[in-house]
Amino acid sequence: MSFLKKTLAGIGIGNMKIDTILDFQEVEAGEEITGRIEITGGNASQELRGINILLMSQFHTEDGEEHVITLENYRIVDGTIVEPKEELTVDFSIPIPNDTPVSFGNSTTWLRTEADVAQAVDPEDNDEIIIAPHALQATVMEGIESLGFSLRQAEFEYAPPSLGGRLDFAQELEFAPNSNSIFARKMDELEVVFIMDAHSIKVYFEIDKKGNWLEERMGLDETKMMLDLPYGQSFTAHDVSEFLLNQL
């Protein structure tokens, strides 16, 4: 290898390139996303120490503070030598955790592919993905909407460890009754928070009923309850609506 080629590769000129190509952009939380990494060698032989794919998420909490977090870090490629202009393709399949924030509101999720190249500028690639609700989340939402509610907004709030989640934040979904719903005169909103652990999804509900100024000031217009849904259990949208009807 000439001194000039080695120097140029070291500062990122003529360096190897990576490109992550996904088989699909939308994936359900708890499922897997697949694709391939295309590696193209530069002008000189380079040591590729490894390639990782990071599952990243960005969101704002209720106080407006921005957060960027790494949810998972997957090792895809171990060390190898990439020759000049060599073309390599590596297929991958990675699981998307159950507690990955759903793509509602200000939540953004993406895969960051990072290559560790010896004595060179490390190439990377970012690919946004859309996270659809976990099957149990979708069932709960369907049950809520069947009662005449619509999702109004989604935001994030800090979650205490006592809730049992892996992350220190939770995504809160706010549903409002439609104007023609029987609950339009009875309720202001229904707040829903999903907390996932290894065994189940815990659904925390907060019902905000319409009350007089004293009831609202003292918090007497709010009712809280929890529904624990084990993974694999048969549970329908009708079951959810019946549960809520007994509380509303």
From TrEMBL:
Pfam families: Spo0M. InterPro entries: Spore_0_M. It comes from the Bacteria. This is Sporulation protein.
